Amino acid sequence: MQRKMLVAAITATLALPLFAAPALAQDQEGAAANAEQLEAVTVTGSLIKRSQVETASPVITITNEEITKKGFGSVSDVLRALPQANGGVQGAQTSASFTQGAETLSLFGLDPGFTLYLIDGRPMADYPLLYNGSGNFVDISSIPMAMVERIDILPGNQSAIYGSDAIAGVVNIVLKQKMDGYALNLRVGGYSEGGGDSQRLQFTGGNSWDRFNLIYSLELRNQEPIYRFQRSWMDSTLDNPSGRGQGSFNYLVRDLLGEVADDFVDPGAWCDRVSSAYGGTVRRFEDNLGRGYACGSPLTSGYSSIMNDRRSANGYVKGVFDINDSTQAYGSLMYNVNTVEYFAGASYSWWGSGAGAGPFYDPTVGSIISLQHVFDSSQTGIFGLNNSFDRNKTYVGQLGLRGTFGDSNWDYDVYYHRSDNVVRSKQLRPLGALVDRYFLGDPVAGATDPFFNEYPVYNVNWDRFYSVITPDQYRSFSDYIRGESHTYTQKVNATVTNLSLFELPAGPVGFAALVEAGNQLWDDSPDPRMVAGEVWGASATQGYGKRDRYAIAAEMNAPLTSMLTATGSARYDQYKASGRSDEKFTYKLGLEFRPADSLLLRGTYATAFRAPDMAGLYQGESGFFAPGQTDYYRCREEFGDDVDFDTCRYNNQQIVGVQSGNLDLKNVNAKSATIGVVWAPTSDLAFKADLYEIKIDDQVQARSLDEILQLEADCRRGSTVGGSPVDINSPNCVAVLGLVDRNLNPTGPSVVAIDQVRTYPINVSKEKVRGITANMQYRLQTDSIGDFIFGADYNTLLKHEYITYPGDPTIDELTFLSYPRDPKWRASASVTWNVGGFSTTVYGQRRGKTLAFNEVDTIGPWTTYNASVSYTVDDLTLSLISNNVTNKRPPKDRSNTTYPYYDSFNYDAYGRSIFAEINYRFGGSGG
């Protein structure tokens, strides 16, 4: 991409007007007289208003009209349909994830936290809960549609204007600024396969007086859930494409001393006592792997939600007051209350003896055993009782003063902005001590197993274990677990702009500068019992932190010739917290070359950063389970340094991990470049395409547990596997040994076993993406059959590489064998036909092939279609909308034998939806 040459060229052209201005200022009138004067407007990605729609930076814009015609009902729907949003993310379909009640997106397959979200150019507060339990991000599910004028997406590094987080790009949700009259909109509908019924009511209005303009809205929304059991192709584990589906292990007893590891104890007639569970489908069955028999139902996994139950109310008001001809005062407030309810499923609704009592001896069985009991979450059991509830309250407000300094060309804008987000969560969960006692009773005093004289003895209450737990019984050993989490970001900003700082022969030089100061807070306060480990089978993240930030920035726009314009911006950010300071200087350079009115050649080079996120700095100790770990110390201690770790019996251990924040984290740093072309041969036809590259260094990863355990073994044994000496008293060893807690009791079978391993985030990873994004728009106007509007968008990744730790091989993410497996390319296209008051649109999305579960075959592509038809008479518009018209299911992967048998990060299982919408406009000066 010749980035060094591009940087040099742009730098030289930016420097030119600073030296040439005095000599050239007088030779300006001829060129200016012939230039068509268009009104300058605010452009996403710039502090300077521009008269050109297309600039050096590629911007993807989706208007309110397009949103409606393409069938989208929410901001989340719009953004996740973007071809540029090709990365798989967690959300409502990813059961038991940390943020099942929130939605986000991944631009170009990059981390969701690398996208900056704005409302009218002002930042949104992070969602208080952590994405995947480790990182801050923004929830886009609760942004109201009522006031959206358009959505701008600006790919690539944008920190030189907006500061931290703008690595993958910026999403700016631009709201309506003025309205005359009122509008009432009602949208109702649901899904043809059941579930998901929704109703949305919007009221918007605006009034103007002599010196005061007011605009306001109210949006109410109700969304019913969709459960997996409502989709026939994944309502049961018998849908397993291998044909070897079996029931879930709802009632399971493992014999830990069996001839085969973890032999099942045959329940026999006990299964008859629980056959009524899950609608009478529980039966005794034999495990496919030959481990024995258990009681279970194939319908168990179907009881989990894939669309959240959601009820929301949103209000918005904005007022602008003309103090005089050159000064305006303005203010706005958006307030949202959003209640989300969802059920994670059997993976979050069960009890096992391992978490509390551990392995134990039962005299009835006569062996050391462990138990598993999956609660009946269907209508015959505790359906809905242990759902998760998240109540989210957010507001975004600002107060400002803007105007012009006297008769000069200098404009100013001074404002205070605050975005605040609070989540209160609630769920009825079993308490460890109570649920253990319910099934096991108390351990037999003074008794241990007859084999090792180590394990406790319990007399299992088999009548309770083999029973269908009722709601009252579930409540008897459970309690509501409540948490509250809070974030905010606030700042004071002062910006000055001058659209004509001085004149060049080709036109005026624009300039802008800003200074801002603010702070942000993150407070994640779960129920103390979650942190203390008193809630069975559950852990929580926690933490608190606050930091101040300051920034200055400047931008210049210089028309070097009638064909060539150079742009440049630079910004300095400083973050202060906990006695530490982080600084970052970023810049962006751009060139616009217009050899003809119809052609634009453009390029940019930029740097960006992400300040250490609040969770990375301030996360308190939070537990997790880490399977598949190797205990290198025990392997080497028992079998010597030449041990084969692959066959060592300690090579597949599940250990308890504890993660906390790291105040020594540094910024994540990035560079990006774009080069592109825009061609509009007529006013009805336009093409644009841009090549982009984003390179990221110092990405944050938790320190590897495997690396910690290897180093711990070296320190304890005094040498590496290869024989190099290691000093146990060295600072590195002292630090590592403090991360690993072991049971050093010299007696019993659990000698020197790992109790837990601590880890923390570090700046270590690198990532690079390169791709092409393209767009086409064409309008065909006819005299007799109306107008046709064609549009197409395309994004493809040419490269996506990742290096997790220094020295690791480079991972090709386009072929990497792990979930989610993102498509290399995505495309969309639409055609709209307008004739008289009639309008219809067909919109299609296509995702490219992805790697199959067996890591050999491919699946897809996957294509879905939306369609809408509307008719307008006077002030009334009636619409009928269908999304996924053909009821296309996710692509079938016959090698995927893991429920629900499709990639829920990249595909949705909702199916066809049908909505009716009515919009009525009334009042106003013309009404």
Automatic annotation (TrEMBL):
GO terms for cellular component: cell outer membrane. It comes from the Bacteria. Keywords: Cell outer membrane, Membrane, Receptor, Signal, TonB box, Transmembrane, Transmembrane beta strand, Transport. Coiled coil: none annotated. The keyword Phosphoprotein does not apply. Residues 52-170 form the TonB-dependent receptor plug domain. It is a multi-pass membrane protein. Residues 1-25 form the signal peptide. InterPro entries: Beta-barrel_TonB, Beta-barrel_TonB_sf, Plug_dom, Plug_dom_sf, TonB-dep_rcpt-like. Residues 383-880 form the TonB-dependent receptor-like beta-barrel domain. This is TonB-dependent receptor.
